[in-house]
Amino acid sequence: MEETLSTWFIPGATLVLGLGIGFVLGRFIPGGASGKVQQRLEDLQEQFSDYQHEVVTHFNTTASLVKKLTKSYQDVQDHLNSSANRLALDEITRQRLIAALKSEAPKGKRDTSVSTEAPKDYAPKDPQAPGALSEHSTAKQNA
Predict the structure, then answer these.
(1) End-to-end alpha-carbon separation of the chain, Å?
(2) What is the Cα–Cα distance from 57 to 74, expressed in whole angstroms?
(3) CB 69 within 8 A of CB 63
């Protein structure tokens, strides 16, 4: 019985001791697989954060430039209106210049007089002619 106990005890104790040593070495030795994965994750998070910052900066710059463009356009329009008032020789010429400037100014809304109906993917036909899926269709008779 004593032989059986030592036969099982020594390998069992060795197994537990080996697992403990492996665990301690795995936790405290740097450069393991989990350390590389963690480093890669941190790098990707930093790259994503930088990208988000670039996007925000891009849109802020774009908004600022569009605002400047709008202001410049308004300044040009005001300059043309004041010049038309100042330089026109008579009232009729002045009114014509101002009307021409206002008619060329961009409108706030798009022209919606164009049809918004989806394009048809078939050729128009005579309203009295039978349709392609009709029982009396020539396409079915020829087939």
Answers:
(1) 95
(2) 26
(3) no
Tens-place pLDDT, residues 56-71: 999 999 999 999 999 9
What is the distance between the alpha carbons of residues 42 and 37, in angstroms, rounded to a whole number?
9
Dihedral over Cα of 75, 77, 79, 85: its sign: negative
112: amino acid identity, one letter: T
Q: How far apart are CA 99 and CA 78, in angstroms?
A: 14
**Model pTM score:** 0.42
Residue 133 gets which letter from DSSP? T
- Phi, psi (deg, nearest 5) at residue 33: -65, -40
Tokens read off for 22: 């492996």
Tell me the per-residue pLDDT of 114-126, one tens digit each, with 9 for 90 and over.
666 666 656 666 7
